[in-house]
Amino acid sequence: MLHTFRYTHPFELESGGALPGFELAYTTAGRLNAARDNAVWICHALTGNAQPQEWWAGLVGPGKLLDPARHFIVCANALGGCYGSTGPLSVHPKTHTPWYHSFPELTNRDMVRAFQLLQKHLDIPRIGLLMGGSLGGQHALEWAVEQPRSVARLVVLASNAWHSPWGIAFNESQRMAIEADVTWQLNSKKAGLQGLKVARTLGVLSYRTYEIYQQRQAEQDPDQLGRYRASAYQQYQGHKLAERFNAYTYYRFSQAMDSHHVGRGRGGAQQALAGVTAKTLAVGIDSDLLFPLQEQEYLVQHIPQARLEVISSLYGHDGFLVEAAPIAAAIQGYFPDFTGVAQAQTEVKV
């Protein structure tokens, strides 16, 4: 069930601006125990939502690694999102019209500080296990740096201490695709949707690998001319996202990802990571083009209690969503006292 947390005070942003309050849409599953130490907080990725049992079905749910019978599982749609949280299509309280382009640029720190207000509202003194992948991994790591005493265990999947020039370049190209859409300048819910489709196809190329396209999208007929499987697949990916997302949130979330740097204002990344007190598992995907293994290796080198687990996958960056079974085994092996005995089932969505 989707709940709504309402913050009714001005919310200052890292940029110097402010929101006149906000709402976060979130879900919970299970119950907080008497010791209040069984909370699992899951941070979603770029186009995710507050329903982790949908996009991480191999890890979350009854009988899975993260089981409501043992854990109190929380997931919130990030500030700026389009799945119930305050975002560009929300109504501005003063103008009584949607924010659209006037919605302010957010950083990951803004989003995490909003999560922390929800944590206080839910009366969770310390999160038993905080985890996320990609953008969600950036959020989880920023949280563990910002409030180290509030996180007991940390799992960062396919993520990094700061967003690389390579990653920023991919995001900028996607934003350029949205800007090239002639409708982008309009104040409309559908503004930039054609550009969003193109942006998504660029994103998918950074998430996947040559090998998985060769395996799934290669032509069986050497005489095939036109109507190629790979072309249809790219069209499908763009159309699918445009049906459930909006260009404004995609644009703002990619900017927030670009802003990610745990060392900003903290004396650099090494000093910031040295302050993490959570027992940490960094999970990397060996074929990840977007967040290569060297980025997870860096985390492990500088976080005091950290281990690296490398997952072999043909799926590239998307392996953190697809390879549920080995990820569950890695988490179970590192945190047996918290996770208990459960088996995850691999669910592949392409």
TrEMBL record:
Homodimer. The active site is at S134 (nucleophile), D288, H317. The gene is metX. The keyword Amino-acid biosynthesis applies. It comes from the Bacteria. It comes from Cesiribacter andamanensis AMV16. This is Homoserine O-acetyltransferase. Transfers an acetyl group from acetyl-CoA to L-homoserine, forming acetyl-L-homoserine. Residues 39-323 form the AB hydrolase-1 domain. GO terms for cellular component: cytoplasm. Keywords: Acyltransferase, Amino-acid biosynthesis, Cytoplasm, Methionine biosynthesis, Transferase. GO terms for biological process: homoserine metabolic process; methionine biosynthetic process. It is found in: Cytoplasm. HAMAP family: MetX_acyltransf. Pfam families: Abhydrolase_1 (PF00561). Pathway: Amino-acid biosynthesis; L-methionine biosynthesis via de novo pathway; O-acetyl-L-homoserine from L-homoserine: step 1/1. Belongs to the AB hydrolase superfamily. MetX family.
